[in-house]
Amino acid sequence: MKRKRRQKTGDRRQEIVNPPALGAPKGYSNGILCPAGGRLLFVAGQVAWDASHRIVCKDFPCQFRKGLENVVAVVREAGGRPKDLARLTIYVTDKRKYIADRRAIGEAYRAVMGRHFPAMALVEVKALLEPGAKVEIEGTAVIA
Q: What is the pTM of this model?
């Protein structure tokens, strides 16, 4: 039986777990192993709004970036960094639009997160609670 392939993330707090049987993931990790003793931070779904709860842009890549920036703002407020995010769930109202804008979304992702790729899931939903929102992102961080 083959063991899980583990790779350091550059941060001693987390290890990437990508079993060879699953193939090489692109833009995410299959698993993130966090050491004991970290504080768990559960970040509520964040959309592309400002402090007045107004959606700041209409296009998909911009909403993705602002939602991710808002997730990171919560992590930073708790004393963490983007690299402390172990899991992201991305809710989108249009999977086809997400796929069509993948390049711009990837650029927005790297601008906010660098080359840190936590465990991720993408879920297409009929609608989001906030009118005009096309993307909502929630996350879990482990902060030492």
A: 0.86
